[in-house]
Here is the input.
Amino acid sequence: MKKSIRDIEVNGKRVFVRVDYNVPMSEDLKIVDDTRIVSTLPTINYLIEHGAKVILCSHLGRPNGQVDNKLSLRPIMARLSKLLDKPISFAEDVLADSTVEMTENMNNGEILMLENIRFYSEEEANDEKFATSLSKLADIFVLEAFGTSHRKHASTYGIAKLLPSVAGFLVENELKMFDRVLNSPEHPVVAILGGAKIADKLPVIENLIDKVDTILIGGGMAYTFIKAIGGNVGNSILDNSKLDLANELLDKAKEKGVKILLPIDNVGAKAFSEDSETKLFNSGFFADDFQGMDIGPKTIKAFKKVIKKAKTIIWNGPVGVYEYEKFKRGTNKIAKYIGKSKAVSIIGGGDSVAAVQSLGISKKVTHISTGGGASLMLLQGKELPCIEALQDN
Ligand code: AMP
Here is the structure.
């Protein structure tokens, strides 16, 4: 395990906390959802209470290395200040000498927020000189931005290599939860995988085959598997370059006694649109001019049975084109079954998380990951570079 803020002395130290305040904003620059800000409060409060000087750094939106006043962190500073009931100073230019001076003049328990770090093109380029400048602002680095921990940027990876670096509570909790479901889960373990990008999901299956009992496959990725075993998938989304690998994984699962359940039936549509004509098709028997848009009722029933018996559930990716009202039934049902289950459940990936949130059942899920790409990498069994850069405990 990696060290967290609990494992080091922070009293009197300047602590650079890389948070993820990339919150949705309205046209008139109002915060639409402050979950990401609220979720960092335990770390910030801990640091303040333990006498640290807290320097907060985040990105917001995609300014592409240019100053864009619409993407300033000032409104976020105002919200955080309200939430903490505490004044926060602001530094416009992270590279200015005056900013270093500001950090040196801070009292214990004070907070300074830096302007949007992606106003600098050096950030995403992981520029070494830029990371060195950032490191001059602090004595300790805290990674609290799980959602960007799979990318090597100057304020997430570069700086972590230069300062004593530890995890904040949010990152610590993410790592603990993934470790629990991947390395010491209560069986039976069920993984539900969906979505369209099969190239991302096949490595997940490869990694999970050694860890789970059953894998339920839905979404666009299912059609590559159905084609691989000789079925007709009509116009469904397909990756022909992955047919052999799909077959290899099915064989490997069989060898290891892991059940892989593919859809039995599917809601097909003539066109990829909400108002298209729809028809149910048994898997492998699509009409040539129809494409699979959602799992069908028999599949939902079969998946429900497995989910009901699970003690651990891992879910990544919608099992249909859930953005359209007509094709969200499968995904919503899966979300509801997980919500009803007493199993330890973990959900990652923007779409599955959105489905759970739109149904108002987030609280019934054990852990909703804050990182789509980062959680996918953990499910693939890969190491997250920014986590690797933190000190070992
Ligand atoms: P991913 O990023 O790979 O998890 O893919 C998520 C996307 O997969 C969502 O936007 C879904 O609309 C899409 N998706 C799910 N099922 C299907 C399907 N049967 N055909 C095409 N796209 C799908």
